[in-house]
Amino acid sequence: MERNFTEEIDALQQQLAGLQEGMQQLMKTIAPHLPSCAMGGPNPTIGHVEVMENMHPNPHLAAVMNDLQSSCGENGSTGRITYLGVFASGGRQSNWIRHDLNTDTLLPLIENRTAEKVLACVGSNDRLNMLLAILRKPRTVAELVSDCGYSSTGQVYHHLKPLIAADLVAEDEHRRGSYVIRPHRVQGVIMLLAGIADLVDGTFTQGAVD
After folding, report:
1. Could you give the 3-state DSSP secondary structure of residue 112?
2. Quick check: 161 pLDDT over 70?
3. pLDDT, tens digit, for every residue of 75-105?
4. Contact 141, 157 (CB under 8 A)
5. Does residue 207 sit within a domain?
6. Domains held by the chain: number
7. Is 21 buried (19+), middle (13-18) or exposed (0-12) by CB count in 10 A?
8. Which residues 6+ apart lie within 8 Å of 32 measured at CB?
9. Average pLDDT over the chain, rounded to whole?
10. 34 pLDDT higher than 60
């Protein structure tokens, strides 16, 4: 049987037209839910903030980011941050949530030298190792001597005293002679480490440069 190429071409053209119409209807449906950059346009702005959309696959976290960008742009602040976490180790647990913190309240910590004092307090390898040991579980002075590689209790007390004076470490109320990280300071230690990790690896950051 001889093929009718004209009819076959007409049928293919009709199928293609149907597909094109279907794609147009689909784009009309999903376009309102797509970021503007996906549609080929620039990112929207709120005040001085360029909105980075869909930064995280979890829609709840993406929504929090959108709220922060809106808050920052509307208030004209340098930034807004939200952080939360849980740390459980050695039979102790700390949970924390802080939402929509204005970074304008953080930057002066450098100007008034608070940041310098805090970093100087923990900024030696001996004190950091001691903090790590106590963070993992309560430790006695004798345990700190053996676990941190000291040769005497005097060395431990030398580094322990500044941590106690800074209200980072205290004697355990439930186990005399053992030392713990103060519960309300755990998040600060963990978040300090998180900040260091971000300084080393910027994988989770997006930015805009004029």
Report:
1. coil
2. yes
3. 999 999 999 999 999 999 999 999 999 999 9
4. yes
5. no
6. 3
7. exposed
8. none
9. 87
10. no
Query: What's the CA gap between 24 and 198, in Å, rounded?
Result: 42
Torsion sign, CA atoms 32, 34, 39, 45:
positive
- Amino acid of residue 62: A
Residue finishing a domain among 75, 103, 131:
103
What's the pLDDT at 35? 53
Whose structure tokens read 């100087």? 120
Quick check: 30 pLDDT over 60?
A: no
Residues 6+ apart with CB under 8 A from 30: none
pLDDT at 53: 85
Contact between 47 and 74 (Cβ < 8 Å): yes
In this structure, the number of other CB atoms found within 10 A of the CB of residue 138 comes to 20
pTM value is 0.73
Residue with tokens 């742009």: 73
Spatial distance between the Cα atoms of 190 and 63, rounded to a whole number of angstroms: 25
Instruction: Determine the structural domain holding residue 33 and report its residue range.
Output: 9-42
To which residue do tokens 């080393």 refer? 200
Average pLDDT value for residue range 143-148 = 94
Please count the other Cβ atoms lying within 10 Å of the Cβ belonging to residue 56: 12
